[in-house]
Amino acid sequence: QVQFVESGGGLVQPGGSLRLSCAASGFTVSSDTMSWYRQAPGQGRELVATITTGGSTNYADSVKGRFTITRDNAKNTVYLQMNSLKPEDTAVYYCRRRYYLDAWGQGTQVTVSS
């Protein structure tokens, strides 16, 4: 059974940093394209970052240059390093395989506020 457990969120001031983790089970993260998504209050879910099996990465324009997606195959975990955080980054963050309709995990809340 494919599952995702996101962690690492919290309350941070504008300009701060957080690193989110996504522990996957039921498959190996190195064998699939993985993505981070986010959902702000009252909005739809947005694709934030993607890493392919070959290690290529893509980012939404709104986070380019500030966020970095990486993968640790030994830990079967995907990370999202978020720097220079802005209030508009406030959302619940989720990870999932990019091209499968897996069930969503519980997500991790990120709140950027002074």
Secondary-structure map with pairings?
Elements lengths: L2 E5 L2 E3 L5 E8 L8 E6 L5 E7 L5 E3 L7 E6 L4 E6 L8 E7 L10 E5 L2
Parallel strand pairs: 2-10
Antiparallel strand pairs: 1-3, 3-8, 4-5, 4-9, 5-6, 7-8, 9-10
Tell me what the structure shows.
By secondary structure, this protein is an all-beta fold. It has strands at residues 3-7, 10-12, 18-25, 34-39, 45-51, 57-59, 67-72, 77-82, 91-97, 108-112.
* DSSP, total strands: 10
Helix content: under 10%
- The radius of gyration over CA amounts to 13 Å
Query: What is the overall silhouette?
Result: globular
Using brief descriptors, characterize the structure shown:
114 residues, mainly beta, 6-stranded mixed β-sheet, 4-stranded antiparallel β-sheet
Please outline what is shown here.
The protein is mainly beta and 114 residues long. It contains no helices and 10 strands. The model has no long low-confidence stretch (mean pLDDT 97).
